[in-house]
Amino acid sequence: MSTDFQRAREALGIRLRELRQTAPGGRLTGTRLAEQLGWPHSKVYKLEGGRQTATSEDLRAWAEGVGQPDTLPELTTRLRGFESHIRSWRRQLAAGHRPVQDTWNVAVEQARVIHAWEEAVIPGMLQTADYARHIFLRYAELQGTERDTEDAVRARIRRQDWLYRSGRRFHALVWEAALHAQVCPPSVLAGQLDRLAATIGMDTVALGVIPLAAPLRIPAASGFWVLDERLVIAEDWHSESWLDDADVVATYLRVWRTLARSAVVGADAQELIHRVRRTVRA
């Protein structure tokens, strides 16, 4: 997806160059446009070359600077087109974690079947409030963002209402490493493991755990969620990707199913969770 994102950014850059070169008052050089906008001249060339992501303000200034303000809606649409797929944490978390959780809640509310893979944390839909609180605090510290922790926790826990509605199905797949990860105090982890074990047997939850010693058919990579075989939400340290291309979604589902072949389920998964739980000194 980073390739698709880059191609979209380069296409926007080509369009910006066209507008500069066809300015009604005569062709503008990049240097002249930069002076006119009060920018370093390198910014013009980075935007045109697809090496920098434009902001809405950049596009407005560009459209006006080249004397073609009527092109702003088109440019804004192009920007939204690829930003709707790649959502940087810097921008998303500018107002804290609660807005991000609200956006997730809307997407989950529309889904009936969800496949989730997490290699390092317990899936949010199965987290306790205490566990979620520590996860948000860790990320707020890392990103240096506003600490709206309690609002974010409430929003995440509210999303779990989805699990108690008939006709819904949550296929959760977790690597055993996530059960051991002490991203919270031991007492909180113990409570989280108890909660996780209790979800086995719920009508709407199908939980699989991949033991650390299990042979893997593919490497365990970053977590992702697939909603109704129509949308993938995947995270990395820089951004969150929302991918709706059918071929991409099919690839992620194939990855999920391949990983699932290494998982234990039912009583075996419950026993594995209890075994890890007994090692936690709460």
Write the layout of secondary structure elements.
Elements: H1 2-21, H2 30-37, H3 41-48, H4 56-65, H5 72-83, E1 86-88, H6 89-92, H7 98-109, E2 113-118, H8 129-143, H9 149-159, E3 169-175, H10 176-180, H11 186-199, E4 205-210, E5 224-227, E6 231-235, E7 239-243, H12 246-260, E8 264-265, H13 266-277
Parallel strand pairs: 2-3, 3-4
Antiparallel strand pairs: 1-7, 2-5, 4-8, 5-6, 6-7
Descriptors:
282 residues, alpha+beta, 434 Repressor (Amino-terminal Domain), Endonuclease, Chain A, eight-stranded mixed sheet, 13 helices, 8 strands, elongated
What would you say this structure looks like, in words?
Helix 1 packs antiparallel against helix 5. The protein starts with a helix and ends in a 5-residue tail after the last helix. The chain has an 8-stranded mixed beta sheet with strand order 1-7-6-5-2-3-4-8, sandwiched between helices. Helix content is 52%, strand content 13%. The protein has helices at residues 2-21, 30-37, 41-48, 56-65, 72-83, 89-92, 98-109, 129-143, 149-159, 176-180, 186-199, 246-260, 266-277, and strands spanning 86-88, 113-118, 169-175, 205-210, 224-227, 231-235, 239-243, 264-265. By secondary structure, the chain is an alpha+beta fold.
